[in-house]
Specification:
With 223 residues, this protein is mainly alpha-helical. Helix content is 66%, strand content 0%. The longest helix is centred in the middle third of the chain and has 22 residues. It is globular, with a radius of gyration of 17 Å.
C-alpha cells in the first residue's frame, strides 16, 4: 500500500527557508518580531484586565518563531523537519503535508491554551514537528513499515519535555502529537481516489473542531 505524492519536497524546503528568515528578523532591533508574534493563552482571551489584546492568530504565527537564546532550538526543529518532511511530503503530496504541519502546530497551541498558565509565552515549531512524527508512525503502521526506533525517539523527546528545569512546552508537544496522529489516521484511511472528498471533509472537520475548542475557552471569539 502506498500513498501517492510528489517527488520534490518543495513545501518542506519552503517551510525551513521561511522559518530561518523569520528567525533572522527576530534578531533585528526595533522590529519586536518575537514579542509581536509569540503565543500565550491570554492572547486568545483578550480584555482580561491585563491590557492584553485579542490576537488569536498568534496560535499559528508562534510556530514560525524560535528562541533567540538557544540556537539549537531552531537547528534541531528544522533538522527534524528536513528529515521527516521530505519523506512525508513525498508520500502525502504538498497540500496534505502542509495541512498536516499547520494543523498540528495549531493543535499544539490549543493544548498550550488549555494546559499552560495564561501568561506562559511559547515559540517554536515543536508542536508541528511532533505532529509530523505522530502522523509518520500512523502511516508507517498502515504501510507495514518498522517504526520502533521512531517510537523510542518520540518517547525520549516527550520525557525531556517533562523534566524539571527544562524550558520546553510539553503542552505543545503533546497537543501537536495527538493532532498529528489524528490527521495521519484520516490520511491513511482515506487514501483511495474515490475517498478524496471524504478526506478533505474530515481534515477540515478536525481543523474546525480545534477552532471550536478555542471558542469554548475564548470569550473574544464570541463577542
Amino acid at each position: 500500500m502506498r500513498i501517492p505524492g510528489t517527488a520534490t519536497p518543495v513545501v518542506t524546503y519552503a517551510l525551513i527557508g521561511f522559518t530561518f528568515v523569520v528567525f533572522a528578523l527576530q534578531w533585528i532591533p526595533g522590529l519586536a518580531v518575537t514579542e509581536n508574534f509569540l503565543y500565550a493563552p491570554v492572547f486568545t482571551w483578550g480584555d482580561n484586565g491585563l491590557g492584553v489584546p485579542y490576537e488569536p492568530w498568534r496560535m499559528l504565527t508562534s510556530v514560525f518563531l524560535h528562541s533567540t537564546g538557544f540556537f539549537l532550538h531552531i537547528v534541531l526543529n528544522m533538522y527534524t523537519l528536513f528529515i521527516f518532511g521530505q519523506v512525508l511530503e513525498t508520500m502525502l503530496g504538498r497540500g496534505r503535508f502542509l495541512a498536516l504541519y499547520l494543523i498540528s502546530g495549531f493543535g499544539g497551541s490549543v493544548a498550550v491554551m488549555y494546559l499552560a498558565s495564561p501568561q506562559t509565552g511559547v515559540v517554536g515549531a515543536s508542536g508541528a514537528i511532533f505532529g509530523l512524527l505522530g502522523a509518520f508512525i500512523v502511516i508507517q503502521r498502515k504501510l507495514g513499515g518498522d517504526y520502533t526506533q521512531l517510537l523510542v525517539l518520540l518517547g525520549i523527546n516527550l520525557v525531556i519535555g517533562f523534566l524539571p528545569g527544562m524550558s520546553i512546552s510539553w503542552q505543545a508537544h503533546v497537543g501537536g502529537l495527538v493532532t498529528g496522529i489524528l490527521v495521519g489516521l484520516i490520511f491513511a484511511n482515506t487514501r483511495r481516489r474515490k475517498q478524496a472528498a471524504l478526506q478533505v471533509i474530515l481534515t477540515c472537520g478536525l481543523a474546525l473542531g480545534l477552532v471550536a475548542l478555542v471558542a469554548v475557552q475564548a470569550p473574544g471569539l464570541t463577542r
